[in-house]
Write a structure and sequence with these properties.
Layout (H helix, E strand, L loop, with lengths): L4 H17 L1 H9 L5 H22 L8 H19 L1 H5 L6 H12 L15 H29 L5 H7 L10 H26 L3 H12 L17 H14 L3 H8 L5 H4 L1 H24 L4 H16 L14 H10 L15 H19 L8 E2 L2 E2 L2 H27 L4 H12 L7 H4 L10 H15 L3 H4 L4 H5 L1
Antiparallel strand pairs: 1-2
Helix pairs in contact: 1-3, 1-4, 2-3, 2-7, 4-6, 4-7, 6-7, 6-21, 7-8, 7-9, 7-10, 9-10, 9-11, 9-12, 11-15, 14-15, 17-18, 18-19, 18-21, 19-21
């Protein structure tokens, strides 16, 4: 049987840290003279009490997590922290039900960016800052999970990162703890640089900090209902575009660049294909806007670059309602929803690395059909791909599609129209944020959906963020038997 003691001990530490983090929005409300600071004080006290209870009840044994405990802790942490992170939203003056608050919190922590809130421009600063902090904390958690946990859980081909880290010539840093620390430093530097750039371009200090946290984390929560369209400033939109791309690149590459391997970024095939795909999508959308909607070239380029990058990197910002751009644009944005950024980044989606490996496997299979007795080794980034890696990638892609069909069908059964159901399922599983259509599109939100739909979408966000198998393995009876 699984020993729950180390799992609950680490979980208690995380809940305690979440409670301490609530002091920041409390101070923001105090500085603004808003009474909502008490909401964060009460929620923080509840979180500290709950986390402390877990810690003191399980303290006393060394923290050594097995593979099964790693699966359990990863899923439990995201669910538990979302449940605790929802408390300030429940207790606040917003009057949210727990369903809506949990949806907002898990959307934040998974950096999805779907929201049930309206009237953001008039909300107290503490709530706005808390939403941004949820995404910022979720973003660093996602990176650490992707490069220090998932490789050892052998999920979705991420064991490739473990193969790299076991090779002395390719190893970014010698230990996972050091890797996580270095990644956190890079994440902080990017966040500060983004905030400074936003502030210099005309945002207020508060707006710059809040948007920097949700840009680098590719989360997409804003302080305004109009998202970044609230700022009629091309410089702000270009800054957002740049840092969304930076947030969607592998963070290990930044560490290698700092340690002297400045060409690591350009030598990585995943980065090259990601940037090439972005460039083609932006070019196609720019031409479409110029020819079909009579936009000036400069305006069309900015509109296309910002909104395409936002969807592909799964950030979810918007400057306009791109659902009104026509059939080509709507279809393109729907399929771009699934793409995602690079593995080892804050972005969601299927991710470029898996498309590359799937293409290599398909090409190898086609060669075998032509020459049945030939030997065609599959290589990726100079390494021979094992059958285990290829299978795990193809299995994840298959499960992604199967779960998408299942969730879209369930949402349709709840009475949602086809566009809302399919784009809602896609945006939840890919952790993008806004869907398509009049209800959950860039100009709408998820507040009018039935509670059952919100719980389904919350489950979709969790499954997509934790790469499906991390959660699904807990449903297998053999997992609990030993």
């Amino acid at each position: 049987m699984i020993s729950f003691r180390p799992v609950l001990f680490v979980f208690g530490l995380l809940v305690t840290a979440m409670g301490l983090a609530m002091a920041v929005p409390a101070m923001a409300d105090i500085a603004a003279g808003h009474s909502d600071w008490m909401v964060f004080a009460i929620s923080g006290a509840c979180s500290l009490g709950l986390g402390g209870l877990f810690v003191f009840a399980t303290i006393g044994q060394p923290i050594e997590l097995s593979l099964r405990q790693g699966f359990l802790l990863t899923t439990l942490s995201w669910i538990g922290l979302s449940a605790v992170g929802a408390l300030p939203l429940v207790f606040s003056e917003l009057g949210l039900s727990y369903t809506d608050a949990f949806f907002e919190a898990i959307s934040g922590l998974t950096t999805t960016g779907s929201t049930v809130l309206a009237g953001l421009d008039r909300m107290p600063p503490g709530i706005l800052l808390w939403r941004a902090m949820l995404q910022w904390l979720g973003g660093i958690g996602i990176i650490v999970m992707g490069i220090a946990i998932l490789p050892y859980l052998r999920v979705g081909g991420m064991q490739l990162f473990r193969m790299e880290s076991s090779d002395r010539s390719e190893k970014a840093l010698p230990r996972a703890a050091q890797l996580a620390g270095a990644t956190s430093t890079v994440y902080m530097i990017l966040s500060v640089a983004c905030a400074a750039a936003y502030w210099a371009a005309g945002m207020s200090g508060f707006e710059a900090i809040a948007h920097a946290m949700t840009t680098v984390s590719t989360g997409g929560y804003s302080t305004s209902d109009a998202s970044l369209g609230h700022f009629a400033n091309p410089a702000i939109h270009w800054i957002g575009t740049l840092f969304m791309v930076l947030g969607a690149l592998p963070f290990v590459i930044y560490i290698r660049a700092v340690r002297g391997k400045t060409d690591a970024l350009w030598k990585d095939s995943q980065v090259r294909h990601f940037l090439a795909g972005l460039g083609l999508a932006i070019l196609a959308m720019t031409v479409w806007l110029w020819m079909e909607r009579d936009e000036r070239i400069a305006d069309a380029l900015l509109l296309a670059a910002f909104n395409v990058v936002s969807v592909v990197t799964t950030t979810g910002y918007a400057t306009v309602d791109y659902g009104q751009w026509g059939t080509f644009a709507v279809g393109a944005f729907f399929f771009l929803t699934f793409m995602g950024g690079c593995a080892g980044s804050t972005s969601g989606g299927i991710k470029v690395m898996r498309f590359e490996i799937a293409a290599i496997a398909i090409r190898s299979q086609l060669k075998r059909l032509i020459l049945p007795h030939g030997v065609f080794p599959m290589t990726y980034r100079g390494q021979t791909l094992s059958g285990d890696v290829v299978r795990s990638v193809l299995n994840l892609v298959f499960v992604f599609i199967a779960v998408f069909v299942l969730f879209a069908t369930c949402l349709s059964l709840l009475g949602l129209d086809f566009i809302t159901a399919t784009s809602g399922a896609a945006t939840a599983l890919a952790n993008v944020g806004p869907g398509l259509g009049d209800v959950i599109g860039p100009a709408g939100n998820f507040s009018t959906l039935p509670d059952a739909a919100k719980w389904i979408l919350s489950a979709g966000m969790l499954l997509g963020r934790l790469e499906f198998f991390t959660v699904l393995v807990l449903l297998v009876p053999e997992f609990w038997r030993g």
